[in-house]
Design a protein that fits this description.
By secondary structure, this protein is α/β, with parallel strands linked by helices. The chain has helices at residues 62-72, 133-141, 161-165, 184-189, 195-206, 214-221, 235-239, 246-264, and strands at 13-17, 26-33, 47-54, 92-95, 98-101, 114-117, 124-126, 129-130. It folds into two domains: 8-36 and 43-130, Ubiquitin-like (UB roll); 133-146 and 159-264, Alpha-helical ferredoxin (Fumarate Reductase Iron-sulfur Protein, Chain B, domain 2, Orthogonal Bundle). A six-stranded mixed β-sheet has the order 1-3-2-6-4-5. Bound molecules: iron/sulfur cluster and FE2/S2 (inorganic) cluster.
Length: 265
Amino acid sequence: MAELRLPPMSRPEGGKAWPSEEKGDLRTFSVYRWTPPEDGEEAARPRLDTFTIDVSSLGAMVLDALIHIKDNIDSSLTFRRSCREGVCGSCAMNINGTNTLACTQRMEDLRGDIRVLPLPHMKVVKDLVSDLRAAYAQYESVGPWLKAGGEPGERERLQTPEERERLDGLWECILCFSCSTSCPSYWWNSEKYLGPATLLQVSRWVEDSRDGGDDERLADLDDEFRLYRCHTIMNCTKTCPKGLNPAKAIAGLKRRVMERGRVRT
Ligand code: SF4
Ligand code: FES
């Protein structure tokens, strides 16, 4: 029978309850903590540290609270962030059970205590920082650049407004990997299944009228795993913090792969 519980060393245990700040609009955060062992040290279990802080003078987002904790309570708390406005994708994490961006998740939209974990089913580098190297290697494997073919022309490769519109809903992806890490198919087959984030990127190039690599791109997907491990569970679309629809992009790729097969037989 399948083991559905996390292995013991992956299950967070109770951590340190930091002294509460004293007054104001108090909110409690449970934050995942894990530090990789040094050479010769035994690995410790992850833990959930508790911070109760006054959020009344902070910005509105969960990221503002994490920055406050790091600046004022525990400087060793580790997380990624850069733009603070939902365009770089680096602050993706799991907040109260949903993968999202800490910089666009408003605290007032979350009830009760706020639980902050790294993206699920990824190795952890430290605390809230997931190891995305394998996901980026998959992204690189699909050639996410224009494959125009032929000699450079005398001028730009133009698109009609209609051709440009076909990229809407695709170009906005910020590669936060919230979608891929919410997908059970990706959890179980992440070495072979490309996952929604990377597949949406394939769709972005296949739909681009300036790109000449469609056949090569679609042939690369035509096996049992890279595309077809998508079982239309739809977690990807439900969780995308940019409101995109990776499931629709994947369905479009399946149709294109099928049509390509029909033409060839
Ligand atoms: S489709 Fe949405 S959730 Fe997935 S990587 Fe792009 S922005 Fe993030
Ligand atoms: S810090 Fe850039 S998306 Fe959140």
